[in-house]
Design a protein that fits this description.
By secondary structure, the protein is mainly alpha-helical. It has 22 helices and 4 strands. The protein has one domain: Amino acid/polyamine transporter I (Up-down Bundle), CATH 1.20.1740.
Length: 473
């Protein structure tokens, strides 16, 4: 297999590196490198926070009422409930990044990166609300009641409303291609690869019973993913409405247990987060460097501004576009403000030391070490959480990629079946092969999705505010 890895990486490596260099182009400001794509996402979060009159804060209570069923939608059309849509979208964002991504931010930027990660999560709530409103407003419902929506649809239809049909079709097509190719890497291969790596760690590494079993694990994962995808969004929603609460509660209870057993260190952890956010010591780029680390990790984690969640939310059973915007804004809060903060506090109250910043010790290994320092049995639990997070991400991104594919080639049984087979094959490849070039390319494509999506959000901003104002009036 190593020869296959090397051959694929050799062919795709230069292309992947060139794409990453363009998408993640960074401007040096002082000692810090500022990626323009991160500034693009931050700008969208700030704009919609003010333009929608702080909807990320004033809309939370109403979003909770809708998702818990206290707000009904008589005469609605759609395929899944608000809770099903939220669970599906959260399953796509709550993943390895919540366990390992926070550790990366802290190990590279110190505790202060946590503060900016939280700020990015709060700003991202406004961006997420905006794209989910548009997802429902411009969705398409066929004669069988099957819903298709997301950025490619609101870019095409919304720009046509403004008299720019060619621009809308071009941006929508670019978005669809990016999400189809991007979902195969970051939403699929990376997740299955991490599942196998965690199984290796938990079972004793290279000398354990899972060594050399990557093909078997990949096939089992592919079957598990395929069985859910074959039933469409309703099947995905049925699984995620059960899986997401369990896996989030399982992980959060474990984190709270560790934090509670180290409660005397919690005040110091919060102090280090606040101090490190504005007065970091020994961190490359100073305050700006730490800020960029936090914002970039948050963007990887909650995907606000990328438009992916709007694909799931567009299938919701509702009569008003604003309802799903209010439900959607809960995602970054759950994903980043709650779960990522708990991961950060686990690390900061256990194994973190100032010398760790920039040491290269990072990722899931650092989070696992933090849990294990207080709970000796924790690595197995962290491994289970990583497996559940990765699996839920794979099924959600399978649906996102499918909708991008059918947008490009048209809705048909053949189109759907062909994509699902290819997607499941990539689940196996993720376990078996180490294709760094594919992952690099897919990361670049995922962030490239933010370019057409955010342009669409700005152009259609009056429609977003009009929907929200109409709902609240």
């Amino acid at each position: 297999m190593n020869s296959i890895d090397a051959a694929v990486n050799e062919v795709l490596g230069p292309v992947a590196d060139a794409m990453a260099a363009v998408v993640f182009y960074a401007v040096p400001i002082g000692d810090a490198q500022v990626p323009l794509i991160v500034v693009w996402l931050i700008g969208a979060g700030l704009f919609f926070t003010f333009y929608l009159r702080f909807i990320n804060f004033r809309g939370m209570a109403e979003g909770l009422r809708i998702v818990t069923g206290k707000r009904r939608s008589p005469g609605s059309s759609g395929e899944i409930s608000p809770w099903g849509a939220l669970s599906t979208a959260v399953s796509g964002t709550v993943g390895i990044g919540n366990i390992g991504g926070v550790a990366v931010a802290i190990s590279m930027g110190g505790p202060g990166a946590t503060f900016w990660l939280l700020v990015a999560g709060l700003l991202g709530m406004a961006s997420k609300c905006a794209e989910c409103v548009l997802g429902v407003r411009y969705r398409q419902v066929d004669e069988n009641g099957q819903v298709s929506g997301g950025p490619m649809y609101y870019l095409r239809a919304g720009f046509a409303e403004r008299g720019w049909p060619l621009a809308g079709r071009a941006l929508g097509g670019f978005y669809a291609v990016a999400i189809v190719l991007g979902c195969l890497g970051a939403g699929n291969m990376f997740q299955s690869n991490q599942v196998f790596e965690q199984l290796l760690v938990v079972t004793g590494g290279a000398d354990g019973p899972m060594a050399g079993r990557s093909l078997e694990v990949g096939l089992l994962l592919a079957v598990a993913v395929g069985l859910v995808l074959v039933g469409g969004i309703q099947s995905i929603a049925r699984v995620t409405t059960r899986l997401v609460p369990f896996m989030a509660l399982f992980y959060c209870l474990g984190a709270l247990l560790v934090i509670g057993l180290n409660f005397d260190k919690v005040p110091g952890a919060f102090a280090s987060i606040w101090h490190g956010a504005f007065s970091p010591e020994g961190i490359s780029g100073g305050v700006l460097g730490v800020m960029m680390l936090g914002f970039r990790r948050a963007a990887f984690s909650n995907e606000a501004g990328l438009g992916s969640a709007a694909i799931a939310h567009s299938a919701v059973n509702t009569h008003h576009p604003a309802t799903e915007g209010l439900v959607g804004l809960l995602e970054p809060f759950i994903d980043t403000v709650v779960i990522c903060t708990m991961t950060a506090l686990v690390i900061l109250t256990t194994v973190y030391e100032p010398s760790l910043a920039g040491s290269g010790v990072q990722g899931v290994a650092l989070t696992s070490r933090a849990f294990e320092s207080t709970l000796p049995w924790a690595p197995a639990a962290v491994g289970l959480a990583a497996l559940l997070f990765a699996y839920s991400t794979m099924i959600a991104w399978g649906y996102y990629g499918l909708k991008g594919w059918t947008y490009l080639v048209g809705d048909s049984r053949v189109a759907e079946l062909s994509f699902k087979l290819v997607y499941c094959a990539f689940v196996v490849l993720g376990c078996v092969l180490d294709l760094d070039a594919v992952l690099t390319m897919s990361d670049a494509l995922l962030f490239a999705m933010a370019l057409p999506n955010v342009i669409g959000l700005y152009v259609l901003a009056p429609r977003i505010r009009e929907s929200l104002d109409d709902y609240f009036s």
